């Protein structure tokens, strides 16, 4: 009996190690890590006609989820799962084929490790963002140069930019975050921000800016819905759908939905639905985004702005 | 099991039970063996996977491991000027861990002595359930309370902006206190009564008994309690992330903002693409977390081995 137990135990170990080795070997190639990391739903690659999985940018998740809800209301047999997880995860998983649509705040070209030629970009909305300032700083208009000086730490007191005599506290986003990327590129002209409190969630950033005297951060326009924080003008231009659409206000980014190859079936229908007037004129502005139809300018992955 | 229409003879029944018993034996044994094997396999799998992912920064991206561990310059998105030095985060993690253990240890052991020696009945009926309830509070709740109560409080009464190493230490102290207290209480209670009686019989006061006899006797277990608390503090991400500020500089004082290995990983991992250098360096941080956690476990094993009673 004892011998038998031992042999069973050994057999099990051999099995486990075998499985492990298989997993390990798999993860060695950089294509199939999603299978082993366990954050994607196993066999989602072969999506059936009536079921798709959407994942990626957490900033986009409410918009896409709201559209998916409405779509499901109209098409009872459609099953659309919308998950968050971050732009990087969305792009990686759509490239691997573990999800059907990968949402991202940034162009795939800007992310290392993504073959932008292999996935297809669908721009579904535009998000505008601007500096969020603590009301006690008494500033509501900054030139771009002042903004750069503040975020690079050259200016450390609000009185230097026409505000109250109060120290400036910076609130940043994590290094790889799409929001930070957009803000650095179009508000700071690529200058690296100085160190400050770093938070990922927009709600947390908003709360910190509202509560901390002299704090400044950056937020998507939908978060400026009360007077706990000041929505800063940039060079005298207020951030609105009109100024962003005309190209006068510089800090905005596309909300991308990427598919692996041309979309088919439900993925195609849903993306068409996202771009339809029905969604663009209701859900998109309701969620605080700029509809694609309002955009008179377009921007490519390198950041070049052109009239439409 | 088998129910015949005619009731079987006594001998038949005995054979049936014997068979059942033997079957039961095998079934039970394989059941628990499977459980054990799954546990071991999970541990090995996580270790192997993390090691393999974590080493990619050094093998694929050719980052110098020494520079990775000792450089204080963290700028993963700097393009050509990118630098990957995680020393500030290792420092931050160890700082919050040791400082919170420093506060939680005397509090936890004090409470344990109170519960086991001074007021055993009250301790067992009231204090212990209260402390055990604290364990069940999710870390996000601790973090949220820290964010809305503790940070503004610190901002008003101390230098700095509230988000600080100190805020992280306080939140972690509250979080690991139940762990330390519970294990320390068990350690004190498991001391044989003869120790107490012997000490008292020699004329020692209760306090002398506690200080000179009971604490030294329970010391290895008490240290284990502290180390397990530290292990929990070291691995905590969410609550710390909400109050510590997550900066990449080595804090100059406890009222400065800081970052820890866990908070940097949780903040950034979703934004990075798989296989990119940013992603790989985050996995490496995970590997370092695992290695340091193993060190904690080794310390615990060593201390448990020294236990005399």
Provide the CATH top-level class of the largest domain in chain A: Alpha Beta
Shape of chain B: globular
> What's the helix-strand series of chain B?
HHHEEHHHHHHHHH
Radius of gyration of chain B: 26 Å
N- to C-terminal separation of chain A? 80 Å
Q: Could you tell me the CATH topology label of the domain at 88-266 in chain B.
A: MetI-like fold
Question: Notable features of this structure?
Answer:
heterodimer, A: 308 residues, D-Maltodextrin-Binding Protein, domain 2, 2 domains, two-stranded parallel ribbon, 11 helices, 20% strand, B: MetI-like fold, two-stranded antiparallel sheet, globular, PBP_domain (chain A), Phos-bd (chain A), cell membrane (chain A)
Task: Describe this protein's structure.
The complex is a heterodimer of chains A (308) and B (309). With 308 residues, chain A is α/β, with parallel strands linked by helices. Chain A has two domains: 51-127 and 251-307, Periplasmic binding protein-like II (D-Maltodextrin-Binding Protein, domain 2, 3-Layer(aba) Sandwich); 128-246, Periplasmic binding protein-like II (D-Maltodextrin-Binding Protein, domain 2, 3-Layer(aba) Sandwich). Helices cover 35% and strands 20% of the residues of chain A. Chain A contains eleven helices and 13 strands. Chain A has helices at residues 2-28, 33-37, 61-74, 87-96, 144-151, 178-186, 202-211, 241-246, 265-275, 277-280, 283-286, and strands at residues 51-56, 79-82, 101-104, 119-133, 141-142, 169-172, 197-198, 215-220, 230-231, 233-234, 252-260, 297-299, 305-307. In chain A, strands 1, 2, 3, 4, 6, 7, 8, 9 and 11 form a nine-stranded mixed beta sheet that branches. Chain A has a two-stranded parallel sheet with strand order 5-10. In chain B, 75% of the residues lie in helices and 1% in strands. The two termini of chain B are 47 Å apart. In chain B, helix 5 packs across helix 7 (165-189). With 309 residues, chain B is an all-alpha fold. Chain B has a domain at 88-266: MetI-like (MetI-like fold), CATH 1.10.3720.10. Chain B has a two-stranded antiparallel ribbon. In chain B, strand 1 and strand 2 form a beta hairpin. Chains A and B meet through helix 1, helix 2, helix 4, strand 7 and helix 7 of A and helix 1, helix 6, helix 11 and helix 12 of B.
